[in-house]
Amino acid sequence: MKLFIYHTPELTPEDKVPDCAIAVDVLRATTTIATVLAAGAEAVQVFSDLDQLIQVSEAWSADKRLRAGERGGAKVAGFDMGNSPLDCTPERVQGRRLFISTTNGTRALQRVQNAAAVTAAAFINRAAVVKYIMAQQPEILWIVGSGWEGSFSLEDTACAGAIAHSIWQQTELPLAELAGNDEVMGAIALYAQWQNNLLDLFHHASHGKRLLRLDCYEDLKYCAQTDIVDVLPLQQEPGVLKV
Ligand code: MLT
Q1: Coil, strand or helix: which one is 14?
Q2: Which residues contact 17 (CB under 8 A, 6 or more apart)?
Q3: Which region, left, alpha or beta, applies to residue 149 given φ > 0 means left and ψ of -120 to 50 means alpha?
Q4: Could you tell me the end-to-end alpha-carbon distance of the chain, in angstroms, rounded to an integer?
Q5: CA geometry: angle at 187 spanning 185 and 189, to 5°?
Q6: Which residues line ligand 1 (CB under 6 A)?
Q7: Which segments does the entry list as coiled coil (predicted)?
Q8: How many CB atoms lie within 10 A of CB 212?
Q9: What is the pTM for the complete model shown?
């Protein structure tokens, strides 16, 4: 296995497709995706464009769909919900498909949608994703952070480091053999420094600060938990993830 980490979707090579890609948007899209699937949603379908989301979801009856729209951290007017994982209660989501568009996370998933296998990871489902990777042993694995509008995000790279660290421990390969680019070592070092203080790290992160200004402290606390849901979101068709 060769592991490559990219801090943003824009940094992924355009002429290559990996055997497996893991999209990461800790704050908050991939945390929300893992949560909604753990709570019994039928599937999650991701869109970069809000109008297209509305159009495609029209084909589903109102009791079978939920529309989630987020821009700049805030809920988009007219949508059922924004992007808070705390809104994904079983009562609300069971049996429904979540149609979701977010500023960066859904774009990252779309960027890697042609990989042979695609999954979504956050701290909350890190162990489930690593277990899948260890079983599949993809030859080329990408972990792609969502970042913020093309820029690096601390929390996504720290989560990429958490996944890489766990894979490294379990493969017992020398890091030099496992790592496909320098970002792997950097991400593992970032995670190693903050693994016991992820909530503090989020307070330093620009998007963490943005969410705090929007009164989302409870979201940050939830997203800072590691390995609390045993759920593996797997792409079944481009843009559609199920367990
Ligand atoms: C994104 O896609 O940029 C994020 O998930 C934003 C958010 O916190 O809702």
Answers
A1: coil
A2: 114, 115, 116
A3: left
A4: 24
A5: 70
A6: 25, 27-29, 70, 73, 83, 102-105, 146, 211
A7: none
A8: 16
A9: 0.97
